[in-house]
Amino acid sequence: MIKFIIRRFIPHHENISDKRVREQYGVLAGALGIICNLILFILKLLLGLFMNSIAVISDAFNNLSDCGSSVIAIIAAKMSNRPPDIEHPFGHGRIEYISSLVVSFIIFMVGIELLKNSFTKILHPEEVLFSWISLVILLFSVVLKIWMFSYNRYIGHTINSGINKATAYDSLNDALATSAVILSTLIGHAFDLAIDGYVGLLISLFILYTGYNVAKETVNILLGSSPNPELCNQVKDFVNEGMYIIGTHDLKVHDYGPGRTIASIHAEIQDTVNIVDAHLIIDDLEKRISEELNINIVIHIDPITTDKEKIKGMEEIVKSAVKEVNNSFVAHNIRMTIGYRCMNVIFELSVPSPQVPAADTIRKDIIHKLKEKDPQLNVIVNSVTALT
């Protein structure tokens, strides 16, 4: 159904690299969220008041907070698509992440308020009225929330939107929460147990946990979390396909919002290659990565020496230092660049598999040992993998 709606309301919907198309996806998802959540809020609020159920009322206000989240999602889709300006040369894409953070605060506030109301209901329980019509309405709510989970997840993956992915799992949480309300209503009716307040308490804790997860994921992105390994491998594979390129290192990826990724990487080229040819190769790679991966990348050339005597001497130094750190470690694919004031030495390292998780510490130890042997060395341990 969502694919039909997308085709109906988003012209050129398949062109997701276009910022305007991406904005339309965000607006459509937000508009659908507002409509669905308003319907659910009104139905559940009336139902909760009729049944005298704090659990149902809690669920209703949870839907109202989701409605506010959808409004923020639409605003974010519009604002994040604004072009770069003097104060924001990399665009406004991170507004989407800030919006996700605002959504998490809304979820927190709703959760805390419902937590207080649920405690009151536990201390002063009241009878919950039962009717099969009420259960039908609640079941309708579960089905609608599962559909909202489905379409938000689809749009989130289609346009790589963090706020839509967060909204998707929030909808799934809502479906589970409403299922808990249905279960508590049936148990209370069958066994005459006053568990409504306790279920409301569980739902409020569930809402708070959802807010925490949304906030945690968003803060990690804003602080600069590790880039997607799959994306990193794609970039490295592209660069390694370039003519005369024998390796890469020091890939850095900066996320300025979905579809606004900036990266840099060092490409290793034999020092015998003509500088003009090297420039043409790198220029072509930058354009291809921009077009095919939608990444604005800068590729730095590292001229790898072909002097066999110097390479042999460096191999002896590196292997000696590595063995001094740990006799079971193996350095391989050793290469080097010669500069005016220092030398870069680049290599891969293999270690026993139980020691792979300590890769950062191992890197520091080996770099320190090599610096002791030659302070002018700039050491790059390109990878730490398990011995085979």
Automatic annotation (TrEMBL):
For the Cation efflux protein transmembrane domain, which residue ranges apply? Answer: 32-223
Cite the NCBIfam families for this sequence.
Answer: CDF (TIGR01297)
**How does the record say this protein sits in the membrane?**
Multi-pass membrane protein
Transmembrane segments in this chain: where? 25-47, 97-116, 128-151, 197-215
Matching entries from InterPro entries are given as: Cation_efflux, Cation_efflux_CTD, Cation_efflux_CTD_sf, Cation_efflux_TM, Cation_efflux_TMD_sf, CDF_Transporter
Q: Where is the Cation efflux protein cytoplasmic domain?
A: 227-303
Record's family? Answer: Belongs to the cation diffusion facilitator (CDF) transporter (TC 2.A.4) family.
Native organism taxonomy: Bacteria, Bacillati, Bacillota, Clostridia, Eubacteriales
Name the source organism: Desulfitobacterium hafniense (strain DSM 10664 / DCB-2)
Localization, per the record, is:
Membrane
Q: Which GO molecular function, any one, fits this protein according to its record?
A: monoatomic cation transmembrane transporter activity
Name of the protein = Cation diffusion facilitator family transporter
Chief subcellular location equals membrane
Under the cellular component aspect of Gene Ontology, which terms does the record hold? membrane
What keywords are assigned to this protein?
A: Membrane, Transmembrane, Transmembrane helix, Transport
